[in-house]
């Protein structure tokens, strides 16, 4: 119980939902040191509880995740058709040099 803080105050539930750096690190799959680094770099918002302690809301974590997410790009200008089944061994026409030509090329390197 917080001194001089009414029990029926609507923000009391919000205070209970604050997360520690260790919990945030576990959620994001990073170390607590990295969480503190993100706060210093102003990439992750926090609630400064004391001069040393920081807490985080679920919304702050979700906002960080959204800011780090990138949409998948699809190049719609020039879609390439894909055959339903690739040919076994590849397409001989697409190969630039024959095996004989490659051997001659390698011999010329010596």
What can you see in these coordinates?
The model has no long low-confidence stretch (mean pLDDT 80). With 110 residues, the chain is mainly α. It is built from five helices and two strands. Helix 2 (21-28) packs across helix 3. It has a domain at 20-68. A hairpin with a 5-residue loop joins strand 1 and strand 2. The chain has helices spanning 12-16, 21-28, 32-40, 58-68, 99-109; strands spanning 47-48, 54-55. A two-stranded antiparallel sheet has the order 1-2. Residues 88-110 have a biased composition (Basic and acidic residues). It holds the Pfam family HTH_17.
Features of the shown structure:
110 residues; mainly alpha; two-stranded antiparallel sheet; 4% strand
**Number of strand segments:** 2
Largest sheet geometry = 2 strands, antiparallel
- Name the structural class: mainly alpha
Figure out the total of helices.
5
Pfam families: HTH_17 (PF12728)
Protein name: Helix-turn-helix domain-containing protein
InterPro entries: DNA-bd_dom_put_sf, HTH_17
Organism: Desulfomonile tiedjei (strain ATCC 49306 / DSM 6799 / DCB-1)
Short description:
With 110 residues, the chain is mainly α. It has five helices and two strands, in the order αααββαα. The chain has a domain at 20-68.
């Amino acid at each position: 119980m917080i001194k001089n803080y009414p029990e029926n105050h609507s923000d009391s539930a919000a205070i209970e939902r604050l997360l520690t750096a260790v919990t945030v690190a576990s959620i994001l799959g990073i170390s607590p040191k990295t969480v503190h680094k993100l706060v210093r770099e102003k990439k992750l918002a926090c609630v400064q509880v004391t001069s040393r302690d920081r807490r985080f809301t679920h919304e702050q974590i979700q906002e960080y995740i959204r800011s780090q997410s990138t949409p998948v790009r699809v190049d719609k200008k020039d879609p390439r058709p894909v055959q339903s089944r690739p040919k076994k061994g590849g397409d001989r026409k697409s190969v630039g040099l024959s095996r004989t030509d490659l051997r001659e090329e390698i011999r010329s390197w010596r």
